[in-house]
Amino acid sequence: MLTVRLLTLGALAALPAAPQAAAQAFGLPEGCEGVLTVQHRSCLVTNVWTCAGDAEGLQWVALFDEEGPIQVKQVDAEFQWLTTWYFSPSQVRTMETPSPDPASLSELFGTGFDTYDFTVVPDDGSVPLRYEGFDRITGETVIDGEPLATTSFGFSVTDPEGRVLYSLEGRQFVSERHRMFFLGESWDPANMARAEDASPVAFIYPEEEGFMAAEPRYECQAILSSLETQP
User: Fold this and answer.
1) CA dihedral defined by 90, 60, 46, 80, rounded to 10 degrees?
2) Can you give the pTM of this predicted structure?
3) Residue 18, domain CATH
4) Per DSSP, what are the bridge partners of residue 180?
5) What is the Cα–Cα distance from 178 to 183, expressed in whole angstroms?
6) In terms of residue numbers, what domain contains 45?
7) CA angle 182, 120, 15 (to 5 degrees)
8) Cβ neighbourhood burial of 5 (10 Å; 0-12, 13-18, 19+)
């Protein structure tokens, strides 16, 4: 699906950066179909789609902020990060397979706990990044009519010499229906006071207003005000 991949990324890159222009839905390549749009706190929106000819369970997940696309992930049915395209700065990271301990939604839903250990390789010659962490189901909730499991997570990212580059902990959400995670709260364990909350607010399906929208709706003015007050 190289052609579909390039068309998809081209469509995203062509989105206008200005918030007022980005309100229109972005167009997907021929053979691809939108699945879900999720509006989050912290001025973020996620769009999910699938494409004909892709392997079963493969999904595309794009994250936008007020200025446009941040990243696109290609994930499988276990929500492994097969390939991630970043837009600013531009970079592609590809997961090495097989990994020592693949992330597994099947394990998480089956036992309530999953560990993972995998490496992603950037395309710009920078060092490979090793992710080691866990997800644990902590309960259940409903947001905008969508049943979700709540989770806690933690992971560290190390370089090939074993030096820890950064760590992250938090709470997020996972859907058995969609077989994917949704953003929640996250923080650096060394500085928990600066926790960020990008929890879902609205789940939008085909034929509903705002489906496949590229413009975030929630807390955008709060983000702008915060930036303006910083020295």
Assistant:
1) -90
2) 0.86
3) 2.40.360
4) 175
5) 14
6) 2-229
7) 55
8) middle
